[in-house]
Structures are given as structure tokens and as C-alpha cells.
Specification:
By secondary structure, this protein is mainly α. It has a single domain, classed as Orthogonal Bundle (Farnesyl Diphosphate Synthase). The protein has 17 helices and 2 strands. Strands 1-2 form a two-stranded antiparallel sheet. It is globular and about 60 Å long.
């Protein structure tokens, strides 16, 4: 990953500077909450992908800096709203914004970040990009609502689960890659390939997140183990274990998923069943398959250091442990 970061280091520094500029407001709380989140150790994968995609397509302007900041602002806004919906107290190992400032401030600052994102987009003078990112945020909201409807629904299968993670997570990563191509006026084939590349690694990213929720401890991963289960979220490790479980085990899982408060014993029992049926391994395998599909999309581009960097970034998604 060091080589990847080095390729976009200068641009990423410029993106960080624009973050601060775009957080400027006469309302101090907006800057405080925004700075808190932006300084909390995010991976910046979406901005990096946009910058690399633009480089791959030989873009030579400067709108990539502003738009890389836009996709991170959109992502950050969704994190603020998600943590309120989930009642999360941790984010990336730190107290979540809603735990520090309250739900009202988190929701409203998230709204500000969304609004600011569209203001910046208009300044980039591309109706196509404005339409693309508008459609993306709409689809993300639909994905979040669908995930809410799927809460504690044991009829959710892998296909329905993948529909949700495509809409709520993968679609923004796909858009980041596609924006890089649009900026460079790339061919339709190249633009479509980069979008598909983003969709596949975005799906793999969420698959790994959902696997890590069951195996990583709080210090390592930055959130409470089993938080998805406590929220009734039907993620692939649990979906797979439930599909493979015996009747008595299915009844036990159903009882636990419906609980308002999860005991350590209940969490351990579900984790034992996920382990018995290799739900984590199954999920990791699905993520690895997505990464191979993603990298294949880049074959239409000639070999280059930038193409290699995108493949390295894709591999990082399944190799990461937090």
C-alpha cells in the first residue's frame, strides 16, 4: 500500500486541505464535528480511487481534487447518520460523533456535509457528474432503508443481502471510480469498466467489514464485537450459518436475533455456530472472488504503474484486518 499512497500523496494532501476549506462555517459546531471525523483515521479509499482512476485515464485538470473531497464528504455524512440509526458509540476506535455531541448534532452536521457536497459539485461544472452523484446518494438512501426493513428477517438470503450492500456501500465506491473516468472524458468502455471495478471492490469491502464484525475485538477494529448481530443486521456470515444450520440451531439463532439486548453467552453461541459452518471463511471467499472480478475489469487498460496500484488497492480490501 505504501507505493499506492506515494503515487497520490501530493493530490491527497491537496484533498485534505480542501476538506478543511469546505468545512469552514459561521457555525463552529459544524467544523468541530467535521474535523473530528476527518481526523479519526479513515482510510480515504474513495478519494484515492477517484484520483487513481483519473490518472489511469490521463486526466490533466484539477477538478479531481474537489471531487475526491466530495465523495469523502458524502461517505462521512452517511457515517454520521448510520451511527445515529445504529446507536453506535464507537467509530474507528474513537467515540462516535453522536456519543460526543448527541444525535441531533450528528444528523444536522451530516445534512450539512451532504448539502456542501452538492454545492462543490456544481462548481465543477459537469452535469454528468452532478447527475451521477445525485443518483448515487439516492440509491444509498434506498439501501439504508432496505437494510432497516431487513432487520431480524431470517428470510434474507445472499442475493437480498448483496442488493443492500451494493446500494448502501458499493455504489459510492463505483461512483468514485467512474467520476475519475468522466473527468478525463474516457471512452464509454473505460468508464463502464472502472464503474464495475468499483462495484466489485465496494462489495468486497462490505463483505470484509461484515466478517470482521464477528472476529475482531474492540481495540483492533474500533467497534464492539457482534454489534451487527445486536442491531439485527442480517449479514453474510450469519446468513450462511443459518442456511446450513440444523433445525434446533435455526430456532436458537432466531431466538437470539430477536433479542433487544444481547448477552455475552448469546453472542458466543452465534459466533460458535458461524464458526461451525465457516461463515467467516465463506464470506472471505466471496470477497476474494469479487476482487478477482474487479481486477479483470482493468484488463482493457494498458499495463502501467497506476493500473498496478489499483490492483494493489483492491487486494488490500481483502487483506485488511480492520
Amino acid at each position: 500500500m505504501e507505493r499506492v499512497i506515494a503515487l497520490v500523496q501530493g493530490d491527497m494532501q491537496a484533498v485534505e486541505e480542501r476538506f478543511r476549506k469546505n468545512l469552514a462555517s459561521d457555525v463552529p459546531l459544524i467544523g468541530q464535528v467535521g474535523e473530528y471525523l476527518l481526523a479519526s483515521g479513515g482510510k480515504r479509499i474513495r478519494p484515492m480511487l477517484l484520483l487513481l482512476a483519473a490518472k489511469l485515464c490521463n486526466y490533466s485538470g484539477d477538478h479531481h481534487i474537489e471531487l475526491a473531497g466530495v465523495v469523502e464528504f458524502i461517505h462521512t455524512a452517511t457515517l454520521l447518520h448510520d451511527d445515529v440509526v445504529d446507536g453506535a458509540e464507537l467509530r474507528r476506535g474513537n467515540r462516535s460523533a453522536n456519543a460526543v455531541w448527541g444525535n441531533e448534532a450528528s444528523v444536522l452536521v451530516g445534512d450539512y456535509l451532504f448539502a456542501k457536497s452538492f454545492s462543490v459539485m456544481v462548481g465543477c461544472e459537469s452535469l454528468k457528474i452532478l447527475q451521477l452523484l445525485s443518483d448515487t446518494t439516492t440509491q444509498m438512501a434506498e439501501g439504508e432503508v432496505q437494510q432497516l426493513l431487513n432487520t431480524a428477517d431470517l428470510d434474507v438470503d445472499e442475493e437480498r443481502y448483496l442488493d443492500v450492500i451494493r446500494d448502501k456501500t458499493a455504489i459510492l465506491i463505483a461512483a468514485a471510480c467512474q467520476v475519475g473516468a468522466v473527468l478525463a472524458d474516457a471512452s464509454d468502455l473505460q468508464e463502464a469498466a472502472l464503474r464495475e471495478f468499483g462495484l466489485e471492490i465496494g462489495t468486497a469491502f462490505q463483505l470484509m467489514d461484515d466478517a470482521l464484525d464477528y472476529v475482531a475485538d474492540q481495540q483492533e477494529f474500533g467497534k464492539v464485537r457482534g454489534h451487527d448481530l445486536e442491531e439485527g443486521k442480517m449479514t453474510l456470515p450469519l446468513i450462511h450459518a443459518y442456511a446450513e444450520a440444523e433445525t434446533a440451531e435455526k430456532e436458537e439463532i432466531a431466538r437470539i436475533v430477536e433479542l433487544d439486548k444481547l448477552s455475552d453467552a448469546d453472542l458466543d453461541r452465534v459466533c460458535d455456530l458461524i464458526d461451525k459452518y465457516d461463515g467467516i471463511g465463506f464470506t472471505r471467499q466471496r470477497a476474494a472472488q469479487r476482487i478477482e472480478l474487479a481486477k479483470a475489469q482493468l484488463d482493457i487498460f494498458p499495463p502501467s504503474e497506476i493500473r498496478d496500484a489499483l490492483c494493489t488497492l483492491a487486494d488490500y480490501v481483502v487483506a485488511r484486518n480492520k
